[in-house]
Structure formats: structure tokens, C-alpha cells
Design a protein that fits this description.
The protein is an all-alpha fold and 415 residues long. The protein has helices at 3-16, 30-46, 62-80, 84-91, 95-109, 115-134, 143-160, 166-180, 190-205, 212-232, 240-263, 268-288, 290-295, 301-307, 311-325, 337-358, 365-372, 379-391, 393-405. The model is unreliable at 48-60 and 389-415 (pLDDT under 50).
Length: 415
């Protein structure tokens, strides 16, 4: 495992990739957008138990869960043009059960953890589940997959806490790294104890002597995050190339660790893919987060691109790189790799198209108009739904929490 080489490979891919407008599927006319918007609204209204099903038994009711999957499949096919073989990956491989199981495990591990943090951790679980399918491994939550997915809500929240001094954060980062190397480190507080317990769960799955690359990958993501934090705190202004390198290293090492926690060992081709997949997901995350990053004065490759008036160029490159990275999944030897490639490509481009619609003030108006042609929904509809979701966010999160964790007598429907 050579992280420096993996980073360099992605930098070269970025440099060699065209900055022309990306191919984003078929143009969707306004009338068709209206049909798809109605489909989404219909799905949203129906995302609650059907008549005859006890609200308290929703999670355990196979009939309701099957109906939910059927409705989700209908929505993805009607509004997003997913093919049947692509939908089968989502609806037939245990994604829903894995997610609800993960949420319960998180609350059992820490009864005080918030739903916000559980959702943050679940995003990594979905990446792992996708890799499990590509690698021919049953979709499941192993102790190490659970632990790795949970590590970063804890560490991120600690490092983002303004009441904790920089000196304390650096000391924490050093102790965390020592624990990842296998040292027995005394936890300094509740958060560190939780993190060290999670590392122990990974150790219960993967012997350090037999699977050394598992722990090299965990150190790689830790070092990438530490590099980013320290660079931003030096009071200097990183160059554009350095910001891009940080973005690549953070994203790539994150999913590289996922790959090793699924398989224990990877071929060089599988390493390349996992690292590249993480990179493109980081690009999309940075595009999605551009408003909060700009308002928070957080320097990323994409906020810098905006300030340098080349955000459109960076967005084009990011999506064109995505197509290249996802072009060939044959390194996993899975017969469903073409369906998985289609699912991943469409999903990432839909996320990017939606992000540009939600944050349209940061891109040139003509560029936004061009992207809207490929959006399943009009951008006015996207912004309206974003506003509605924002106003109901706390209520919605609370209902999810009750739905998953409360006793049967207390569970409520998600409406």
C-alpha cells in the first residue's frame, strides 16, 4: 500500500481529464419533470404504514417493508430512470435491514448518541454495503464495519468542538494514532474511551499480524485528516494544488479503509478502485457542502475554485473523473458489475445535479440552466422541497428515532 502513489495517480487523472461539460444522461423536458415531481410527492405521502398494519409493528412487519421497497423501486424507476437490474442491487441485497440493524447497534453501543450522528455513520455503511456486493460478500454489519463507521462521528465532533483547545485536539489525535498502531492507551475522557472501544472491535475481527494492511489503511485515513487539520490551523493559505491533494487523500483513504475492512486483503487493482471511489465521493461531498463551507470560511479545493472563478471547470472535471473511475469494476470479478456501475454513476450524477440546484448562486447562471436540463426535477421544485425539509427536519429526525428505537407501544409512523 503506497498512499503517496495512490494520491499521485489521482492527481494525474485530474490533470489529464477534460474540463468540458460532462455527459449527464438524457435531457428531461419540463412536462416530464412535472410528472416526476408528482411521483416524488406521491411517494413522500405514502411513506407511512398502509391501512391494516399496526404502527407499532412497522419495523418487524415484513409485508410493510416489502411494500416500502416496492414503492422505492417504483420511485427510482419513474423519477430517476434506474433500470431493473440496477434497482435489484438496492431492493434485493438487504440494504434496508442492514441500515435498521446498524441504527440499533449504534444506540446499544451508546444510548446517548444522536440520530444526526447515527445518520452520519450510516453514510459509510452504505458505501461498505456497495463494496460488499462488488466483492461478492453478503451485505452484513461485522463488528469492524460497525466500528469504523462509528469512529468518525466521535472524532469529528471532538475536533469540531470550539470549547476544546488546539493543544488538547493535537494531544487527542496523537493518542488516537497510538491506539490505531496497537498501543494500549489510557483514555482521557468519555469520547476517547468510546473511540478506543471501537478500535478494539476492529481488532476482534482482524488479527494485526495476519492482516497488517487493515491497520495501515486506518492509519492512512487518520494521517490524512490530521494533515488537513494541521495545515488549516497554521494560519497560512494552502495553494490550489495542495487543497486538491488534501481532498484526494482524505476521500481516497476513507474508502480504501472500507475495502480492507470488508476483505482484509485487496489486489492493487482493487486498491486503486477503492481509493478512486473515495476520491469522487469526496468531490461530490465538497460540491454538496459548498454553501456551508463558503459561509464558514472553510478552504476546500471547490471553495478556492469559486474564489478563483473556476468552479464550473472544477465541477466538470470532478464529474468527468467520476465516469473514468467507475468505468471498470471487473477487478472484483462480480457478474453484476455492469449494473453496479450504472447505479453508482447515476446516483453520483444525480447528487451533483441536485447540489447545483440547491446551491445555484455559486455557479454561473447559464451553467446552472444547462445542468437543470438533465435534472429529474425543476430547480424551483428542488429548492422548495429543500425548504420544506429544512423546516420539518427536527420533527422528521425525531420520528425516525421513535420509529427505530422506541418500544412497540410507543413507535409512531413516519409521515
Amino acid at each position: 500500500m503506497n498512499i503517496g502513489q495512490l494520491v499521485n495517480n489521482q492527481v494525474q487523472l485530474w490533470d489529464q481529464t477534460a474540463c468540458t461539460f460532462p455527459l449527464t444522461g438524457e435531457i428531461i423536458l419540463p412536462g416530464e419533470k412535472a410528472v416526476r415531481e408528482k411521483a416524488l410527492e406521491k411517494f413522500a405521502r405514502g411513506a407511512q404504514p398502509a391501512n391494516g398494519i399496526d404502527k407499532g409493528d412497522v419495523l418487524d412487519n415484513e409485508g410493510y417493508k416489502q411494500k416500502l421497497l416496492e414503492n422505492l423501486g417504483w420511485l427510482l424507476k419513474t423519477s430517476f430512470n434506474f433500470e431493473e437490474n440496477e434497482l435489484g442491487i438496492i431492493t434485493q441485497n438487504g440494504f434496508l435491514s442492514a441500515t435498521s440493524g446498524f441504527m440499533k447497534m449504534a444506540r446499544e453501543f451508546d444510548p446517548e448518541i444522536s440520530m444526526e450522528d447515527i445518520f452520519q455513520a450510516s453514510r459509510n455503511l452504505w458505501i461498505v454495503n456497495s463494496l460488499q456486493i462488488m466483492m461478492g460478500v453478503p451485505v452484513a454489519i461485522s463488528p469492524s464495519v460497525f466500528a469504523y463507521s462509528m469512529l468518525y462521528p466521535y472524532s469529528d465532533n471532538y475536533l469540531d468542538d470550539p470549547d476544546i483547545t488546539q493543544k488538547e485536539k493535537i494531544a487527542f489525535s496523537n493518542r488516537f494514532r497510538k491506539r490505531l498502531t496497537g498501543e494500549k492507551v489510557l483514555a482521557a475522557n468519555y469520547t476517547e474511551k468510546a473511540i478506543f472501544d471501537l478500535v478494539a472491535m476492529i481488532e476482534s475481527d482482524w488479527d494485526r499480524q495476519v492482516y497488517p494492511d487493515v491497520y495501515k489503511s486506518l492509519l492512512a485515513i487518520h494521517d490524512a485528516q490530521t494533515r488537513s487539520i494541521r495545515l488549516m490551523d497554521l494560519g497560512t493559505t494552502p495553494g490550489c494544488d495542495e487543497l486538491l491533494s488534501i481532498c484526494i487523500e482524505k476521500g481516497g483513504t476513507s474508502v480504501l479503509a472500507d475495502g480492507y475492512l470488508v476483505k482484509g486483503e485487496l489486489t492493487s487493482e482493487q486498491e486503486d478502485f477503492c481509493f478512486g471511489f473515495g476520491v469522487v465521493l469526496q468531490y461530490i461531498d465538497d460540491i454538496q457542502d459548498i454553501t456551508q463551507d463558503m459561509e464558514g470560511m472553510l478552504e476546500t479545493a471547490f471553495t478556492r475554485a469559486k474564489r478563483d472563478n473556476i468552479l464550473e471547470v472544477f465541477t466538470n472535471k470532478a464529474l468527468n473523473v467520476t465516469t473514468k473511475v467507475l468505468d471498470d469494476l471487473s477487478c472484483f470479478g462480480n457478474k453484476n458489475h455492469e449494473a453496479m456501475k450504472g447505479l453508482m454513476n447515476k446516483s453520483i450524477k444525480i447528487l451533483a445535479i441536485e447540489a447545483i440546484g440547491k446551491n445555484s448562486e455559486y455557479w454561473d447562471a447559464g451553467y446552472v440552466t444547462e445542468f437543470e436540463k438533465y435534472s429529474p426535477f425543476s430547480y424551483s421544485f428542488v429548492k422548495k422541497r429543500r425548504s420544506n425539509m429544512g423546516s420539518n427536519r427536527v420533527s422528521f429526525m425525531k420520528k425516525i428515532e421513535e420509529h427505530v428505537f422506541a418500544s412497540n407501544a410507543e413507535k409512531t409512523a413516519i409521515v
